[in-house]
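Quick illustration, no need to memorize.
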Amino acid sequence: MNVTLEKKDDLNALITIEINNEDYQESLNNQFKEYRKKAKIPGFRPGQVPLGMVKKMIGKSALYEEVNKLTSSGLYDYLNENKIDILGQPISSEEKESELDFDSYGSFVFHFDLGLAPVFDLKVDKKDKLTRYEIELEKKEIETEIKNLSRQHGTLENVEKAETENDSIVLIMTEVDKKGEHKDGGVFEQEVTVLPEVVKSKKVKKQLVGLSLNDEINVDVFELFNDNELVINQSLGIEKEAVKDLNKTFKAKVKEIKRVTAAEQNQEFYDLVLGKDNAKTKEEFEQKIEENLSSYYQAEAEKQLEAEVNALLEKKHQLNLPDEFLKRWLTQTKPETYTPENIDELYEKESDVLRKQLVREKIAEQEKVEVSDEDLNQTSFAYTAQVLRQYGMNNPDPALIQNFEAKNREDQSYMLRIRDVVIEKKVLDKVKDMITIKSKKLAVDKFYNEVKKFGDKV
């Protein structure tokens, strides 16, 4: 067997595998002999079937299996021995046709196209500077959090009229034209829930407070949602790109009004929020809430730093890929997902993910990132606790977390995801050590202004 590699450029290559009769004949003969021993064919005693008949019966399929096995092993042994890093998998060459004749026992020549991984160096160092924000809590943040918790654990009732800013209002919203009629192709009767308390516009807030069931108003949709494109597109069920094309005037009809009676702040409330006996007095409760908020904002600040690290890595490593090869590979191997009609659109996202993966692998290899059992255990436990909190369990019992986690671990794909999370975290921590990070203290609102500015840039 002979294997040769021809590089077309830095990202594409042609690999040729030539298999001759002597490469497979001995193994093939052994297969024929084994089959001959076991074959039960009328008119012949076991082991006495003519070899020619055996070849006629299984020769072609056996040859096909043997040649494919040799081709696969020869291909991947060559790639491993020569440390050739490929993307995707080898696919039959478009330029050179393979020479395959399974009707005779001669030579076979296979030609495969390869997509080569780009060779690159890491381009981050101490000259790269980012900011880690230290968020300073004010008393109003703690008071607001306790107020929100009181409402969260309060009682909800339907009322006829919105009398305070804290009443939530369910509106049926329709985008209208200058004549006050439904805009052709615009948003129609979309149900949204608004809380006057969070609306910044005094004009809109005044429109909302005092509304009764079935009342109708014309409202500026941008002022209603504080000019937040993400909130607008999620609330109205439209694409983010479509927000800028909205008419600002919407007709809104009141469907429901709900009022929350806040929970009384007593020992039962403290236990409900923090777990039994974790706070005995108002002062202890407020201190615990402050600690929880501090931890939350610390995590938010670290999440923002990691988002900026990711953006830095992407900016510094604009890797070229064997795009046409990868598109062809995707459409051939996953035709149910990738088609000639959608491949260009879908490939853009796939290639971004691949570039990110290549950079992460480079950092992990260079910095010798390792994953221990303890890393997996801690991450799995924290991940499970977070999921339970999302289902409304503010302080899930450790035994409950372990029970859920044990079930999750039975799923191999779950553990692979946890491993990816660990590697991602360790890689980002390595990059933080490689660059310069300065600290900056900020109030909560100013921190989220910085987050918004960053989001607008990326």
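The longest strand covers residues 249-261.
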